[in-house]
Amino acid sequence: MRVGVIGATGLIGRHVARELTERGHGVRAFGRSSQKLPAIVADERIALAAGNDWRRLLEGLDGVVLAIGAVSGPDMMEAHRTLPDLVADAASGLGITRLVFVSAIGAAPDAPTLFLRSKSEGETAITSRRLPGWTILRPSLVYGPGGRSMEFLARLAALPARPRIASGPIRPIAVDDLARAVAALLEGGQDLPAAIDAVGPERMSIDDYIDALGKRIGSRPIVTARLPGPLLSLAGRAADIVGPTLLSSDFLLMLREGADGDPEALPRYCGVRPSGLAEGLARLSVPRRRR
Ligand SMILES: NC(=O)c1ccc[n+]([C@@H]2O[C@H](COP(=O)([O-])OP(=O)(O)OC[C@H]3O[C@@H](n4cnc5c(N)ncnc54)[C@H](OP(=O)(O)O)[C@@H]3O)[C@@H](O)[C@H]2O)c1
Predict the structure, then answer these.
(1) What is the pTM for the complete model shown?
(2) For atom 32 of ligand 1, which residue has the closest CA?
(3) What CATH number does residue 110 fall under?
(4) From the CA of 161, how far away is ligand 1's center (Å)?
(5) Atom 39 in ligand 1: which residue has the minimum CA distance?
(6) What is each CA distance from 160 to 165, 224, 270, in whole angstroms?
(7) What is the residue range of 181's domain?
(8) Rounded to 5 degrees, what are φ and ψ at 225?
């Protein structure tokens, strides 16, 4: 196949580009940064600019992966809403039969965060032009080298006073497992469901996840400290003022809501069974402990 990967400079996109290349497919990688693009494993690299003609950019492709996103600001609305709309329009016009849109667990029109509501708008853009081989993939927390949430939480795991954060259940999934799932969904000739959860096998809290990261980096806290909700909200609001950072009110709210999903969905639709957290962390390189 010849597959276009949009957002190829991101955590998920660059692993998808590498996985597809290793499986013998041609990859046309799209990204905004001419500094990051050369490092992406692909045989064509296209730098995006304002006012792209998506029909021309997607010509000759058999499949498309949309793995773009941002935590806040104008980038977020462009990545979550505008680009999926333009890409879906071009891909359906060109008759591209396979498409995977990477969304997120919890995307819904009435979700509590703008992040998830805007993701839901992107989902609608895809669904309204949907061909039978197109699907929306909804991951829980994705971990892997260079992943921003993992790096942030690994920093917390390395603190001598390890914070405890009230959270809903999550099911972390390793980015290489997710990339294998995306490739398998593109390769399969069968019709796909409108949306598929992409989650790991273990249901846990963020505290469990931070502990697993701590174990992997060899960090043992002297004490653990539960962070009071109002203090966290204050930190989130302060971060909102600073600009697009991970520690935003939306991120904290999403942690509180959790990101649980159906662990049988990926095995069912593409034969990929994601590994457990300890196995995934052992396989992937994780940040070293800061001294
Ligand atoms: N990582 C997770 O835990 C997780 C969990 C659930 C869902 N997801 C979803 O999966 C998608 C990809 O996540 P990720 O972890 O790979 O994110 P990431 O590492 O932050 O990468 C985001 C990608 O989107 C691109 N992008 C951002 N704004 C853009 C814009 N306005 N126009 C064009 N490209 C833009 C970035 O390009 P630049 O390199 O040029 O900035 C980058 O390639 C996101 O939609 C995210 O919501 C991620």
Answers:
(1) 0.94
(2) 79
(3) 3.40.50.720
(4) 31
(5) 9
(6) 16, 8, 42
(7) 2-144+173-201+260-275
(8) -135, 125
